[in-house]
Amino acid sequence: MFKSAEMPQTLSKEDFKQLEPDLRTDLLKAQLQLIEEKKFSVLLVIAGMDGAGKNEAISRLHEWMDPRHLACNAYGEPTEEERLRPPFWRFWRDLPEKGEVSIVVGSWYQLPMRRHATCKCSKSEYELELVRINEFEEMLFNENVLILKFWFDLPLDEQKKRMKALAKKSRRVRHILEEWTRFMGDETARETVEEAAMRTSTAEAPWYVIPALDEEYRDIALGQIINSALRYRLERPEPESIAAPAIVAGTSHRSALDAIDLSAKLGRDEYEKELEHWQQELATLTDKKKFRDTALVAAFEGNDAAGKGGSIRRATRALDPRIYKVHPIAAPSDEEKARPYLWRFWRRIPRKGRIAIFDRSWYGRVLVERIEGYCTEADWMRAYNEINEFERQLVEDDIVVAKFWLAISEEEQLARFKAREETAYKQFKITDEDWRNRLKWGAYAVAAGDMIDRTSTSAAPWTLVSAEDKRHARVTVLKTLCKQLKKAL
């Protein structure tokens, strides 16, 4: 793949001076249209051989484009904060909002390629990492992120000359981000790069190899590719939002939810005893030294008025308030809507030794967004796999993922709605939207059933909680949290 890139490709300074003004104008126009329309965001992955002029090319982009809407994120070895979270957390954290451009140096490719080039992982492990990178990039593409990946290439003899010259300039060398490409003299490393490029250059996120022997040619080629890709994406029509099809009257749709025994109850005396026992157990488990090497993410979903808040409060009473945070999830803010839908959840993932509790969660994509038509059918259909992948990454990083669906009957929900309206200190819990959602009980039941069937995995199973009796539901939640933590510790 890199043979053609090693052929001398140059551009005279006179030709550069002729091409640069028009290219700068076109690039800036495209960027200003992007800023105004906010149709998508842009990730420019800059990688390549040391000495190929990556820093200089990035500086040129800052000169040609509006730097106020052009960020540069460089990643080296993970910081202490980053090591305490899943590997992809830091890349999700820094995703640009729609209308913005982010330059990424030392991307999600850096550590996998370095490990493989230095024989610290097997070929099969490396290939699996590349598959996961493809899944990550495909999701970003589907969530309106334009990804362009550039590899700056040099003949090896030219790289050696440049690195020797740089070594004499100690001050400048300190500012060079040392990527794994210092191993590029090794044939294994060369094969590592080519395999990564071949396996991850997709229609959604293509790789472009840019010969970097001549800096004028390098920068003009980089600018032209970015400009062409921006223009193409800006002119592409936006997909229309399509509401989920209505449930046809008289049809049946059975799922795991239908198997929940809503008659389950717990007497008051037994409840008090069980509550104290499992709260103490939860406190003991989260106080263990081993818990510092893991984390807990608990997601609560269920019918409106099923008692999610009450179950959460009984769990948090057992916890040190310094180690947990409850995230009530409502409609996304403007900042959140400007990024992929999982961004607001990735940024809330706790560090090791901490707990994040979500009152409503990332499952809104396949529930409310599906039912209300806030996303296309293609969006929520692909979300099942995206959510499974998200949770898999958490579990692989030693995070316990506990998911609860609290279920009540339609009749019990009506009784609780009326009780909320009649109780002064509970009136804030009932809104017009709750009554509107109740009219779509059947549609939500189908969506919830599909969700359970498609996202209850061995790594992150759903716990279906009979919540007709609040005492039974609260103890079930506590007991499940303790059992999952025990298994992890």
TrEMBL record:
One of its GO terms (biological process) is polyphosphate metabolic process. Keywords: ATP synthesis, Transferase. One of its GO terms (molecular function) is polyphosphate:AMP phosphotransferase activity. It comes from the Bacteria. It catalyses: [phosphate](n) + ATP = [phosphate](n+1) + ADP. Gene3D superfamilies: P-loop containing nucleotide triphosphate hydrolases. Residues 11-233, 266-487 form the Polyphosphate kinase-2-related domain. The keyword Translocase does not apply. It holds the Pfam family PPK2. The keyword Aminoacyl-tRNA synthetase does not apply. This is Polyphosphate:AMP phosphotransferase. It comes from Stappia sediminis. The gene is pap.
